[in-house]
């Protein structure tokens, strides 16, 4: 069933749809991972990292909504189901239980780096077929790279 008529030709739509779906999954998992660490962090830097993690959650949630709605707008149904996120995320599983502040920072550096690598691939892939989607991906990747910088600076 195709309810929303797409402004893109079929071949481009497939490519752009995959880029948006992949971005959605990574952003949803990033928001979950950042919350998991936000709740479980322990150590002398608890307060600052705990608060910093919620800034990542806010970024990831806002952009996940933008990305999902861009997909819908071009006629691709976004899939944000838990099973889909678990199967397709770029981010490795975070261990259960308390997490030391230093490990929390490293976890976020790794997660953000993994997501940024895949976002940059999506930026390249969408350049020709859909500069509007590419623009969204560029904007959100700038925000992710800013978070990645701040967590890296914490381990300097
Ligand atoms: Fe909280």
Description:
- It is a single chain.
- The model has no long low-confidence stretch (mean pLDDT 96).
- Helix 2 runs antiparallel to helix 5 (131-154).
- The protein is elongated and about 55 Å long.
- It contains five helices and two strands.
- It has one domain: Ferritin, core subunit, four-helix bundle (Ferritin, Up-down Bundle).
- 74% of the residues lie in helices and 3% in strands.
- Strands 1-2 form a two-stranded parallel ribbon.
- The chain is an all-alpha fold.
- It has helices at residues 10-40, 46-73, 82-88, 101-126, 131-154, and strands spanning 41-42, 99-100.
- It binds fe (ii) ion.
- The site of fe (ii) ion has 2 residues, from loops.
Task: List the defining traits of the structure above.
single chain; 156 residues; mainly alpha; Ferritin; two-stranded parallel sheet; 5 helices; 2 strands; binds fe (ii) ion
Topology:
Layout: H1 10-40, E1 41-42, H2 46-73, H3 82-88, E2 99-100, H4 101-126, H5 131-154
Parallel strand pairs: 1-2
Helix pairs in contact: 1-2, 1-3, 1-4, 2-5, 4-5
Offer a concise description of the structure.
This protein is mostly helical. It has helices at 10-40, 46-73, 82-88, 101-126, 131-154; strands at 41-42, 99-100.
The named CATH superfamily:
Ferritin, core subunit, four-helix bundle
Q: SS-based structural class?
A: mainly alpha
How many helices? The count is 5
Domain module tally: 1
Q: What separation lies between the terminal Cα atoms?
A: 52 Å
Low-confidence stretches: none
The CATH topology is: Ferritin
- How would a textbook summarize the main sheet? 2 strands, parallel
Strand content: under 5%
Helix fraction, binned, reads: over 70%
Radius of gyration: 16 Å
CATH structural architecture? Up-down Bundle
